[in-house]
Structure formats: C-alpha cells, structure tokens
Amino acid sequence: MHNLQPLLNKTYPKAASAKGVYIYDKSGKQYLDGSSGAVTSSLGHSHAKIIPFIKQQLDKLQFVYRSQFGSEEAEALATKLFAVSVNKSHAHSFFVNSGTEAIETAMKIAVQYWQEKGQPEKVHFLSRWKSYHGITMAALSLSGHALRRQRFEGSLQKYPALYADLEKDSLQQQRKEFIEVIEKKGAKHIAAFVAEPMVGAAGTALTPHPEYYQEMKKICDDYGILFIADEVMTGLGRTGKWFALEHWQTVADIVTIGKSLGAGYAPIAATLMTDKILDPIKKGSGLIMSGHTYSGHPLSCATALRVLEVIEEDNLLSNVTEKGVFIKNRLMELKDAYPFIDVVRGKGLMMGIEFNPSRKGLQARFIDQCFNNGLLVYPAVGGATGEDENGILISPPFILNQIEAEELLYKFEKSLNEINN
Ligand SMILES: Cc1ncc(COP(=O)(O)O)c(C=O)c1O
What we know:
Blueprint: E1 15-19, E2 22-25, E3 30-32, H1 36-39, H2 51-60, H3 72-84, E4 92-96, H4 99-116, E5 124-128, H5 137-141, H6 146-149, E6 161-162, H7 171-185, E7 190-195, H8 212-223, E8 226-230, E9 254-257, E10 269-273, H9 275-283, H10 298-313, H11 316-337, E11 341-347, E12 350-355, H12 362-372, E13 378-382, E14 388-394, H13 402-420
Helix pairs in contact: 2-10, 3-10, 4-9, 7-8, 11-13, 12-13
Bound molecules: pyridoxal-5'-phosphate (PLP).
C-alpha cells in the first residue's frame, strides 16, 4: 500500500461512490453516513445543487494566489458569513484550508491584536482540558485529548487549562476555577480563552450550562482576555442554528469554522473576527501574519457559498432541529433499555452517547458492529477526565429524511443488541 491511512495495519474498504446520505464501497455495500464523515458532509454526497455548480465554477476560475489577487468568490463568501454570524458581528473572514489552520490563525490574530494594543506579553492561551482544537503542535497544545496528544507531550506548549466538569460542577464552581486560573497565570500574559461551544471529539457533545458562555465572556471582558469560539464542529447549522453560540446568546471576538463550511465538497475553513479585533491590526501593522498557499481558493469559496445557500433554500436548519429531536428522544429510550449507556446528550444533529467506562473495548466493538451493519458513527472520548474511549457521536447530514432517520436508529439499536450478547 502506498497511501497511508491512520491505522497502518488495517485494511480499509475503498469507497467507490456516494449519493445522499449513503456511501457505497467497491463491493457495492451501502453505508448510511450517520457521522457525515468527521461531522463534515452536512449536505450529504453528490448533491444535485452542488455538483453542477462546481463544474460551472471550474470553467470560470479555480485558483489565484491571495497575495496577488482577491476574488469575487472569496468576497461573496465572507459577506455571507457576516450576514449569518451571531448578531451580525463577524464582519471579517480569513480563509484557510482546515479547522486546525483556522485555530492557528485565530491564535496568531489574538497575539497580534494585543501587540497593537501595546501588550506584547499577552501570548498565552487558556482552554478547557476536555477539548480538541486541532492536530498541529499549537492547536494540540490547547487540547486535552489524551489519545491525540500523548506521544507529543514533550513538544507541546504548557498552556493553563480548566478542569471543572461542565455538567456536574455548578456554574459557580466553573466561574471560580476560571478566575483562579486567570489570576494564577496573570491576565497580562493571556491573549485569549479558546473553547468549543459544545465539546465534540473530546467530550461526546458535552454541553455547558445555559448561562455558561455569557458568564465566561463577561469574565474575559473584565480581565481583558479575548474569547475565541471554536465552531469548527458546531458551526454552520450542525446544532440547528448557524452558530452554536446563538443557543447561549453570546458573541465571541473570534470564531473558527471548518468542516460544514465546505461540507466535504471543498477543503476550506475560516477565522472570523469582529471590527474590534481587526481595526487595531489594520491601523497598526496592516498585516495578518498567517495564511497558506491555498487560502481563499476561489473554487472552494464559491462551493462553500453555494453550500450555505442550499442550507437556506432547503430550510435545512429546521430539518436539523426536527430530526435531532426525533433521534434524541429515541436515544433516551435506548438509554433506559440498555444499562451500559450512561449518557445521551446533544443539540440538533450533534448527539453524543457515552457507554459506561467500565465496559472496556465496548466503543470499538460497537463502531465495528455498526460498520458491519452499514452504519457509520464517530468515536469520541468521555468519562470524568475525558480519557475514556467510551463515546459515540451521531451527526448525520442535514438532509436526512424521516425514513433515513428511522433506518439510522434501527441499525443503531441492532448494533447495540448485538454487542450486548
Ligand atoms: C472543534 C474542532 N476544532 C478543530 C478541529 C480540527 O479541524 P481539522 O481536522 O479540519 O483540522 C476539529 C476536528 O475534528 C474540531 O472538532
């Protein structure tokens, strides 16, 4: 094998085609994409409104380099993102190619912001230990995802982290810890607090208290710390709103998006920011020192804009909410029926199920069993410290219809039954 995939000794089936919520392998076996890949393919596969559009865009403009040209495609996408941003607050977008890059850019923009404000010593970041922000060294330094960071501990930055339990500890305890950690490190050294509105791969859709973000944002403002919301997984409709922070009525200073932006049709991600963040940089150095060769790729930008338009045209945010409620209600019933399910949680089509951590190996067995039954689900970690490999994310495409939702649940329960025996 010349192409390397994550598990070097595993033989992965080769995907041959995909349509709607289904993927087909070379043998013709059908899989219901219950995870949208890595919570990405929000419009499913081979969408009739996307494929002809990409072909048409290919004939027009594919690539120009961002230091030489802008493009109508990138401008139009940034304008649309401004229009859908929380309270129309994020007027500016910096395009990159992956969620990790969006986080790296967000970190750099935060540091540059404070440099322009005359506080160059603000170079550290505060994050929650239970989190995943990306795979590069800096993004991983923010992330407590043990499995993904354990081999690289020695190479990672030591940023201060929050350990309070988002569900079990009270909001008061969470606030207290937040303030203590800020004061211990010294606000004068902290550029930003970085958090996923709902914790995905590192928390199995862990969802903070309804007042959590307003409280934390207020503390950030009081101490002069920026708030970076990592909406790479939650953003652009996954939770039934354009941005998950709408559920908390909170506006972050900087927002990262990825995954659902290109929806699997184009590799694209972005770092969004308010005027407050951009203005001092614009008036100061006039340069954002980040970016990549493919940043602002016109074909990717045009595709992403079309994705957002289709979400609107086809009223998919309502479908996400409606199908999410239907699936979650059924999962709650399954929790009562299967004692090894500890937790069911989530919003929209981002749902998490945690198995009892004492049942070692159950998660892997379950994922394999689902795969055998033609259902794709996504692994996540959970438990008290986020080190138990006991979580499953269910995150099907936004286009999921009622029959497909029932099929997903049927295969899910069938797999539960089979691993229970
Ligand atoms: C919340 C969050 N941030 C960042 C990332 C990194 O995104 P990417 O894999 O596109 O680099 C992910 C990926 O799973 C994520 O879930």
